[in-house]
Write a structure and sequence with these properties.
The protein is an alpha/beta fold. It folds into 2 domains: 83 residues, Rossmann fold; 134 residues, Rossmann fold. It is 41% helix and 16% strand. The structure holds nicotinamide-adenine-dinucleotide. The site of nicotinamide-adenine-dinucleotide (NAD) has 23 residues, from α10.
């Protein structure tokens, strides 16, 4: 069994991006600039945004953080998005989800200029991705593709079972892995909360992508010997032994699944850091397209 070390891989890719940015700076060209909009004080969202800003600093990008109270109105947020769309200094931006209940997330995503949508959530980017056209790929699935590629994991002809059908992970992942591409060319089964006998479906998988949001949901008895296990889940569970009072676990019961898997991602230190790296790659792409 081999651990897919997302933390290490993301450091390698960030170092490659940094070298590219050093070149851009030396040539006095446009330095990539990412903006992040953070609404409210959700601790997980704050921590994701912090890590995105830190990563920008590491690779030498410009970054702008816009923080607003959760009482912000939908109209005010849409105004901020309009300003970011129009601001020529900003190459790409993200609005950290989830948003407060009184704000319509779909409306917000639709308001983002697809050319600056480095999270790859806008339907224009989603549609282009689905048709195999050049697009900003959604950050988490893009990060998983890079893991598969850099660990030389064969995907062609494999049976991949994706668990969870969200617009940001499960559904785009199922499309990307079924495309005629490398990584890709999988036969994909997209499963969800209404799937009958989910355990039997997962047991048939050569590649399992778990994106459900339920701690330790997939156990070793659901994993075929030699399967590749990618755990997207990030769940906080109580842990009195930690100073924070919690620890992070995935959707996969790591210990029992690791006994069966050929490759497995840990939580933390797996898919999470790769999501941030993908965002940087998309921002770099946005800044190059602008030139
Ligand atoms: P979501 O929370 O929007 O939806 C959950 C999905 O799981 C739904 O499609 C639902 O059908 C499915 N589901 C729920 N219960 C199920 C069950 N009992 N059996 C089968 N399927 C079931 O999904 P999301 O936004 O993709 O998030 C999933 C998890 O991934 C969360 O833990 C989230 O924090 C994490 N996440 C991690 C990253 C990362 O960068 N590592 C990025 C995004 C999301």
């Amino acid at each position: 069994m081999k651990i897919i070390d997302g933390k290490e891989l993301s450091e390698i890719i960030k170092t490659e991006i940094k070298a590219e940015v050093d070149g851009i700076r030396a040539r006095k060209e446009n330095i990539p600039h990412l903006a992040a909009v953070l609404i409210g004080d959700n601790p997980a969202s704050r921590s994701y945004v912090r890590s995105k800003v830190r990563s920008c600093e590491f690779v030498g990008f410009e970054s702008t953080l816009i923080q607003k109270d959760s009482s912000i109105s939908e109209a005010e947020l849409l105004d901020i998005i309009r300003e970011l769309n129009e601001n020529e200094d900003i190459d790409g931006f993200i609005v950290q989800l989830p948003l407060p209940k009184h704000i319509d997330e779909t409306k917000v995503i639709l308001a983002i200029d697809p050319a600056k949508d480095v999270d790859g959530f806008h339907p224009i980017n989603f549609g282009k991705m689905a048709q195999g056209l050049d697009a900003y790929l959604p950050a988490t699935p893009f990060g998983i593709l890079q893991m598969l590629e850099r660990y030389h994991i064969e995907t062609s002809g494999k049976h991949c079972v994706v668990v969870g059908r969200s617009n940001i992970v499960g559904t785009p992942m199922s499309i990307l892995l079924s495309r005629k591409a490398n990584p890709g060319n999988c036969t994909v089964t997209l499963t969800h909360s209404r799937t009958k006998d989910l355990g039997a479906e997962i047991l048939r998988a050569d590649i399992i992508i778990a994106a459900i949001g339920i701690p330790n949901f997939i156990t070793g008895d659901m994993v075929k010997k030699g399967a590749v296990v990618i755990d997207v889940g990030i769940n906080r569970i109580d842990d009195a032994s930690r100073k924070s009072g919690y620890r992070l676990v995935g959707d996969v019961d790591f210990d029992s699944a690791a006994e069966k898997a050929s490759f497995i991602t840990p939580v933390p230190g797996g898919v999470g850091p790769m999501t941030v790296t993908s965002l940087l790659l998309n921002t770099l792409k946005a800044s190059k397209l602008k030139v």
